[in-house]
Structures
1.
Amino acid sequence: MRPRGRMWARRLAAVGCCLAVLAGCSGSGGAPGSTSADAVRAEPSGPPPASRASITALPADDTQNLPPEGPVRVSVAQGRLVSVRLADSRGGEVPGSLSADGTGWAPDGPLPLGTKFTLDAVAEDEQGQRAVQHADFSTMARAHTFVAFFTPEDGSTVGVGMPVSLRFSRPVTDRAAVERAVAVTADPPVEVAAHWFGAQRLDFRPRAYWAPGTKVAVALRLKDVQGAPGEFGTQTKDVRFTVGRPQVSTVDLDAHTLTVRAGQGGRVVRALKVSGGDPRHTTYRGVLVVSEKYRVTRMNSRTVGMGDEYDIKDVPHAMRLTDSGTFVHGNYWANPSVFGTANTSHGCIGLADAKGGTSGETPAGWLFEHTIPGDVLEVRASTGDAVPPGNGLNGWNLPWAQWVAGSALQPGASPSGTPAAGPAPSAPPSASLSASPSAPSSGSPGPVPSPSPGLPPGVPPAAPAASSPAPSPGARP
């Protein structure tokens, strides 16, 4: 066995604050494949130079219930590892060791139970071309127990659209008991309601976007609560976050523009030119909330079953909008003329950018630097599907009556959270897709409030989702 040496001296100094995640774009419709010959294309004439370094990371992305002993390891062929970072959800790094030849890495010991981790690896080939690999995974809870992984993080500052989202390590059958064990309060006070997306996800939000400056407290009192027969919670935890400045942007895919609005009343800060999904891969419409930010990320067509159509290893300034892979991101490989004139992507919203993700002066770089998780993009278009409310942190697409009906504590709900039979709540009428943003109502502290509860102007109501989709890295830039 070759000796291992400590690798931390070479860690992030080599890559700064760049993180990479296997990711990509996915739109709301259309089959994989090329578009019509006369469509303006955003794809490069050839793929960016590819690194010969091939990284293998275990476990696979989105692995759940991993034993504490793993396997957790990173290896590279035709290259050397530049950095490996394994961190828990609070950013605490896990010590690990690099092999003497620089081609392998492993943690120094078993991982804690019931914890969510992020693994990021960077490698270089002989030509200095870099490859990246990303994986999210969680370790198993103790036998016959469950925990909740929560969003946002404790102590964070978020945008006005950030819900409280809990994802449970095991399916919950007694949803009422679990929901009673969670309290979400706000200062200043505002009504907050819960909604279940399947058996492993519980979200909370107010009727309209949070008021800026609101302080939100989440009390998890799950210890000894039976979520399913023989399955008991283990957590007693308090999470607090603050709602920052209001920023609600409008994306008009027919006009190919993204208008950034901030402050009371939705003052226009900047208008940016964009390119959305082409006719075969339309971009989702509706209220989309930024959930994650990556200065550089990888987008691979294999992650959505499109074969070897592309593999772009360094997509800059990427911000996730859905679990299924819709991003707003920078694009350095397209003809600059497509931005503001044509929808040419595979479902993402693209802005002009420079390679590397280091410039804050490009349109994509500027938006990245002025966006925080929880900021809202209200996407409008004459074509395309409404985003499913459970696909990402996008529960705002449910009218308030339907949102409240998804609580297990509503009158007539069964312990599993299924509402009693009866007429479905009526959805508010849809406003015109070309409607201009409304002025704020009198006394409203939030930005551009909706005329219908829970829905912004110009956004059609979506049908409630029975469960959240399985997270996917997506793959269509």
Note: The radius of gyration is 22 Å.
2.
Amino acid sequence: MTYPSYEEVQNIRSELKEVGYQYWLHHDLFTWQWWVLLIASILPWMIWGYLIKRSTAYIYLRLLCQWVSFRVF
């Protein structure tokens, strides 16, 4: 039994990545489920921003930004 070379494995991985991307591009992107997920991720933030007072919103937004920057860096 012979094992594939490193170049062959890399070529197959590259092809698999391209096939997965093409599938996502033609079958998942901009479907009605995609739009529902997009709206479901944005709408709560819009409702939250509309319902709370502006001064309170800035405090929460600042805390969120600090938390995200702490997690990323």
Note: The two ends are 47 Å apart (CA to CA).
3.
Amino acid sequence: MADNAGIEETIAARDWWQNAHTEEFLFWTGAAALWDAERKELTAEHDRCADALETARNRIERALEQITPGANATVQRIARILRGDA
């Protein structure tokens, strides 16, 4: 009987530990999943913003290529601002 008592105590201790820590485990597992989902969303948003910025820069560069030396002063001033020369 002594062996069974030891086994039952071991099983009871194991069950207590599992019950005590299951809620905490589920909390941290859920928190990790939420963090991972948010990280993926932020990464996707960053990628979309980076693509939009690259597209805008390319459009500005193409527009600046169309400005001729004989353009009026306002157009040339805007071009200098966009190039970063002003």
Note: The mean pLDDT is 85.
